[in-house]
């Protein structure tokens, strides 16, 4: 009985398995599900068992076996081979689970799941269809989807922005807000994002000498807007640095040609001079200057004290001038009043009563002696005793 076991090799193949029988290291046949008795005496026997629910036939020599024994293996296996200009979309039961790079060879078992490979020619067209992009961008990595990040350049362009598509170092097109995907195989793809909103650039803490040799520290702010993103991308590596240096240069030129007094007297004029100087230059590169504003003009400590003294002296001088101007008018007014009272005793008496009224508001009791003719005949109580 033992000799029989040496003559036969028993092999059990499950329903979800297929086995390849090799005799003397040569492929002989496929063993379907069931129990198989393999005759040993005709040479060494080797059996390789595969689970077809894994779908992919990942044997090292898969391509060789299918090319050599296609008539036998064709009943159980299906093969796909991509050229160097093709990408494969691998579907299992209608679900996209993998991306096959160019040049890929893949063999799959029949009878387990419905398998399909969609072929995409990327020789000229590298933009990914919107429907496929939605599947690739969902972030779920099923099976071999881990390579999706290496295969796809996935980009979102937000509102008020544009994207500049650069392929192999060449600017190809401008992308409007939206979602885009590109195959990265066989080419270098980058998308540069350009902000089309208003942007501010601050030039702070600039130490500058005025025309009369006064050192100032000035803070400047410029507001710009990009009007031609392609030109900006082609001309600049960093357009903000270029604008910063331009504002800085024009600020120094403008301040250096004016005195301290003129700067302090009309700061808006400095804004206009700087904006006019840089606006035309930036317009050549597709950048519009919206406004330029000098935020702060900071004087050194000793200069603050000197200016404070000057302002104080000026205000004192103005006060003295006003006082001297008002004194003659006050004397003239008093003279006119005196003449009117001299010729009109009633007016004089009214003036006296007005004065008494003013005094009365300050004291509790007051008495006036005299009569209508000015002769003191009685006492008049202006306010009763409390």
TrEMBL record:
It is a single-pass membrane protein. Its main location: membrane. Residues 363-386 are annotated as: Disordered. It is found in: Membrane. Residues 152-311 form the Band domain. Belongs to the band 7/mec-2 family. This is Slipin family protein. It comes from Microbulbifer epialgicus.
